[in-house]
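[Archive record]
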Amino acid sequence: MTDDADRNYQGGEAHDPLVDETEDAREARSAAARLFDIRRVIGGLFVAYGLIVGLMGLFDTSAEIDKAQGVRINLWAGAVMLVFGLLMLLWQRLRPTETPEPCHDDT
C-alpha cells in the first residue's frame, strides 16, 4: 500500500499518470503539426528547384543565352526561386505554427 501511495504522491503534490499521457499527446501533436507545415514543404521544394535551375544557368551555352536575348534567364529564375524558398523556411523558423487545443464538449 505504501508503494502505491508513494507512486501517486510525489514532492508534496498529487501525481496523476493521466496528466503525463495528456502532455505527451500534446507534444506529439505539436511535433506532427510542425513536421507537416506547408511552409516547410514549399520552401524545401523551391530551394531544391532553385539550386537545380541556378546551376543550369551557370553552365548555359552561348546559344542558350542568345535564345533568351542575352539574358541568363535560368540563373535569374534559379536565384529568385532560391531566395523565395529560403524566405519561406525563415518564416517557418521565426513563426512556428501553434497547434490548436482540442475542443472538449462538456455537455
Notes: The beta strands are 9-10, 13-14. The mean pLDDT is 80. The CA atoms of residues 8 and 17 lie 8 Å apart. Residues 73-94 form the longest helix (22 residues).
